[in-house]
Design brief:
The chain is mostly beta strands. It has 2 domains: 83 residues, no CATH class; 37 residues, Irregular (Low-density Lipoprotein Receptor), CATH 4.10.400.10. The protein is built from 2 helices and 7 strands, in the order βββαββαββ. A 3-stranded antiparallel beta sheet has the order 1-3-2, with no helix packed on it. Strands 4-5 form a two-stranded antiparallel ribbon. β2 and β3 form a beta hairpin. The chain is elongated.
Length: 136
């Protein structure tokens, strides 16, 4: 990861200062739910992120603290700390393929993956008791 540090200069038009007023980061790195980019951690602090406007290609998590790319919505990976990008009420609108079934978290897995001893859903709902493998 490259971090640009400018001493005594202002940030470029697409950059913002960290709280230390020394380091600059790209505005899309602020509140991005991926990595702390400012050495002081200010780019992911709650008071800054709650008022942060997400880039047009991103959505805001339900807790208002993070932005995430629209492509990450319902991708089976929890990108928001609060899990709202994988919420069942949002993700259940996608159709499961033939011979697949919904997990509790909205993901789809093949019916043969239910009750196989592995967490295929990502929330272990394909392995919860009572586990009847042939009860699709």
């Amino acid at each position: 990861m490259k971090v640009a540090v400018f001493l005594g200069r202002s940030c470029s038009g697409w950059q913002v200062h960290c709280a230390d007023q020394i380091q600059c980061i790209y505005d899309w790195e602020q509140c991005d739910a991926e990595t702390v980019h400012c050495v002081d951690g200010s780019d992911e602090q709650e008071d800054i992120c709650r008022n942060h406007t997400c880039p047009s290609t991103d959505l805001k998590c339900a807790d208002d603290l993070q932005c995430f790319p629209y492509l990450y919505l319902c991708n089976g990976r929890r990108d928001c700390y609060d899990g709202s990008d994988e919420a069942f009420n949002i993700c259940k609108t996608k159709e499961c393929a033939f011979r697949q079934r919904y997990c509790d978290n909205g993901n789809c897995v093949y019916i043969t993956e239910f009750c196989d001893g592995k967490d295929d859903c990502g929330d272990n709902s394909d392995e919860k008791e009572p586990c009847f493998r042939n009860n699709y």
